[in-house]
Specification:
By secondary structure, this protein is of the alpha/beta class. The chain has a single domain, classed as P-loop containing nucleotide triphosphate hydrolases (Rossmann fold, 3-Layer(aba) Sandwich). The protein contains seven helices and five strands. It has helices at residues 23-36, 46-49, 61-80, 94-103, 118-124, 129-134, 165-174; strands at 12-17, 41-45, 84-88, 109-114, 156-158. It has a five-stranded parallel β-sheet, sandwiched between helices. Helix 1 crosses helix 7 and helix 3 (61-80) runs parallel beside helix 4 (94-103). The radius of gyration is 16 Å and the shape is globular.
């Protein structure tokens, strides 16, 4: 990881991983830590975006790409207004994540890949989505019948089944 990253300027933390990997939990913990440091920060969570800004989108490939494009554009606008952004979205496609990365200055972007096993995610399943997908009641579930392209070179990768949230936050902020 580059040592020239700094939170003296706005930053985009892009948290990606399967459903139930811990994205929202980590995003909220990062938010809390940064807020305590008097940073202007906001969380853009995939579930919340799909209730409003992206409520017109489905789960097909084109709609998933548009969902990520919209989130990235909002994040870029916020960064341009001196606000640190934490995006917590499955964002299953490498090319789309790379587009976001390339739209933000290098020293202001950090990709965080949460990589517990699929079995761990299925066992957590807070919304019951994996159960429904495995029973054939829903389709387009990332990791089951829709693809997830793991990041090639994320700044951080964590198995959330083996590392605590406070340790992840300390590791991330200790290297920024």
């Amino acid at each position: 990881m580059s040592k020239n990253k700094s939170l003296n300027s706005p930053h985009l933390f892009w948290i990606t991983g399967l459903s139930a990997s811990g994205k929202t939990t980590l995003a909220q913990a990062l938010y809390q830590s940064l807020s305590e440091q008097q940073k202007k920060v906001i969380v853009l969570d995939g579930d919340n975006l799909r209730q409003g800004l992206c409520s017109d989108l489905g789960l097909n490939e084109a709609d998933r790409k548009e969902n990520i494009r919209r989130a990235g554009e909002v994040a870029r606008l916020l960064i341009n207004n001196n606000i640190t952004v934490i995006c917590a979205l499955i964002s299953p496609y490498q090319k789309e994540r790379d587009k976001i990365r390339n739209s933000i200055p290098k020293n202001q972007f950090t990709e965080i890949y949460l990589a517990p096993s699929l079995e761990t995610c299925i066992s957590r399943d807070p919304k019951g989505l994996y159960a429904k997908a495995l029973e054939g009641k829903i389709s387009g579930m990332t990791g089951i019948d829709a693809p997830y392209e793991a990041p090639i070179k994320p700044e951080f990768q964590f198995d959330t089944a083996t590392i605590s949230v406070p340790r992840m936050v300390n590791t991330i902020l200790g290297h920024i």
